[in-house]
Amino acid sequence: MKVVAIVGSPRKNGNTEMLTSHTLKSIAEEGVETELISLAGKEIKPCNVCMACEESGECVIQDDFLPVFNKMIEADGIILASPVYFGSCTALLKALMERAGWLSGPDRRPFNLKVGGPLVVARRAGQNFTVAEINFWFHIMGMIIPGSTYWNIATGWQQGEVANDEEGLRTAWNFGKNMAFVMKKIA
Q1: DSSP 97-152
Q2: Which CATH class is domain 2-186?
Q3: Separation CA 102–CA 138 (nearest Å)
Q4: Which residue among 17, 48, 113, 116 has its CA within the 20 to 30 Å range from the CA of 186?
Q5: pLDDT tens, 48-94?
Q6: Per-domain residue ranges for the chain?
């Protein structure tokens, strides 16, 4: 079993990546293989709804999307993590979600019954909408979203501040434990 966590922040080693790494440690403790993929420095272009994927099953846009998408397909669990930018997930993560959604199509459904969930970090507000936005994608993909002890959110502004959010860290840790539990039950 494997969980792939995709960090949609354009910043390397920021609060979102720290929270995601923390969650992956929780999952790894349960004997599940983990991988963190940072979108920082990658080019993920937005979907142009050309519909080529409907016929071919392949995306014709040339960028860094396909290797990330293939890792998502291979994984048993997926975490999508984002800082809040103006009340929403980052453009990088949104582009990945849109492209993966269109490429998955109603006939293919490669994420159906996989386990996944969001992780969200913000300075002050916007986490709830961003969690919902990412959860909507998981629902449309037919995925199973385990709960935690609160929404999978944490607060932090300057690099490293998320380490001061004890409740956020605990919630993310518990989400990781629940994710591993559900994955094992399904297997």
Answers
A1: HHHHHHHHHHHH-TTTT-EEEEEEEESSS-HHHHHHHHHHHHHHTT-B----SS-S
A2: alpha beta
A3: 13
A4: 17
A5: 999 998 888 889 999 999 999 999 999 999 999 999 999 999 999 99
A6: 2-186
